[in-house]
Amino acid sequence: MARRKFATLKRFLDYIGLEGDRTIFTWISASEGERFANVIKGVTAKVRALGPATKLVKKL
Amino acid sequence: MENIDKKLREEAKRLLEEKKVDVLIGYETGTLPLTATPCFITNPEDAEKLVWNAFCTQNLAKFVHDLISQHRESQKRVKPEDRKKKVVGVVARGCTTRSIVLHLQERQYARDEVVIIGVPCTGYVDRKRLSALVGGEDIQEGALEGDQLVVRTPGGEKRIPLKDALAGNCLTCRFNNPIMSDVMIGEQAPPMNPDQEYVEIEAFENLSTEERWAYFTKEMAKCIRCYACRQACPSCYCKTCFVEQSQPQWVGLGEDATDTQVFQLMRLFHMVGRCVDCGSCVSVCPMGVDLRKFLKKIDKDVFELFENRAGSSMEDAPPLSRAKEHDKEDFIFNP
Question: What is the ipTM of this complex?
Fold first, then answer.
């Protein structure tokens, strides 16, 4: 269910105009330390390229 | 149409007299010209009020759920051996039966608690579209003559082809005949134009990210958070809606634009595999927010990814309750 929900969520957020790269989903097992590090590196690289989020951000 | 009204009334009267149903939900003529409004009938004589025409807008499955769940709640205080079942009859077009299928699949009530009077549907008039066609003028009188709407406004009489005033979801409707029914009134309606159903969505998909975001924010800025869309939606039946939850508070209640966007986003996203495209939310929206642009996209994605159309068959389980080995994996991030 989570998997299917995520597949639609990513498409939907992209459709309303949020950058698709901001929603990232993957599976990592607790035993996959190296993979975890690689994924996080990948995520930060993608987010850094996009810059700070301006959409759906609440100004307090 | 006259004939359908007559058959509908006879059938409703029979069901009530024979105590096959405790209450019957249908439409009666509204107080404003060219409108119809939901009505609840318990007395067989009142069946004469029922109508079925192009002005019957709301999806009545909402009320089926409301009545049955309220009744069940009230029966909790009754000794188990004295509990009674309440049977609700409903006048249902295609989208209403889809909602009922969805409710049944989601185990909201049992099939024997609802009696479906199926009616063929050729689309309903979108009040906002009609209002725009008469230039926003007050509609003082109106009648349907064949496929023409004759509308009298302070500025004079106008003839409008019915097709021009039909709601967007009706024009491309795929299921305008009931999916299932206990009694079917009238002949099957001719198909609408389902091949065109995603044309609008595809055009929107081809816009740039910024254009799409601009449209989303523009539409959501209209929203006044009256929650009419939620109240009208047959798929919105949570006992406590996330917007009213305070522990945790999922979404702020202020006038911040982001809160409104998040509310709409979350409500829309609760419709994955559950929106039957009945257009009730759009028709009740006092601000004219283009909700369908986003709901139809969810419908399109669900069909593309999981080959499911919400409520289209009793055998086809809801898409989010199952998974297949060959579901697409392109959304998974693998650096």
Answer: 0.90
